[in-house]
């Protein structure tokens, strides 16, 4: 990783904490942007890199746990909570809603850096998965209406003749559509196509019927 391909956002109302965290991250070659409140963080234009959000629990405008809940539906960086007033219910709530860690001040630099690296790795993975899903959705949109009818029948396990009968087309025509679906979706095998259909949450309304017409 280079300093330009990931970033850490710091949200803490204590300027001394912001400066100390910024210096620590800089010493590890990690770029950081600090905010004094949740509102400043939410309103800011932020670089689109794999990231970690270091979030204080007690903030002047909103509780950090409430901010976690508010941004949960969006694409936000994994959160590492820091607090001077930690308690078990708060830590449980934070972790239950996806926080990477919940650190009580004073915490060690090693513990914080381990949590940050875990958060950035998690965000990098999530971004990769979102990009792959976006690519699959684009490929699916490029299928013809008939090919979109063929896909769920194929991945359901129906034989070619069964799928053809379902669509009232010839088996040869079904095979052509099936080949086009495999090529357009870049599926190397039927098993690969099944995994793609699962990622796209394509409803499977048929099951293989041995001996069906």
UniProtKB/TrEMBL annotation:
Residue positions, PTM 4-aspartylphosphate: 56
Keywords: DNA-binding, Phosphoprotein, Transcription, Transcription regulation, Two-component regulatory system
A Pfam family of this chain: Response_reg
Gene Ontology biological-process entries: phosphorelay signal transduction system; regulation of DNA-templated transcription
The UniProt record lists the keyword Transcription regulation: yes
Gene3D superfamilies the UniProt entry points to: 3.40.50.2300, Winged helix-like DNA-binding domain superfamily/Winged helix DNA-binding domain
Domain annotation Response regulatory: ranges: 7-120
MF terms (GO), sorted A to Z: DNA binding
InterPro entries to which the protein is assigned, alphabetical: CheY-like_superfamily, Sig_transdc_resp-reg_C-effctor, Sig_transdc_resp-reg_receiver, Tscrpt_reg_LuxR_C, WH-like_DNA-bd_sf
Domain HTH luxR-type: 136-201
Superkingdom, taxonomy of origin: Bacteria
Stored PROSITE patterns: HTH_LUXR_2, RESPONSE_REGULATORY
The protein's name in its UniProt record: FixJ family two-component response regulator
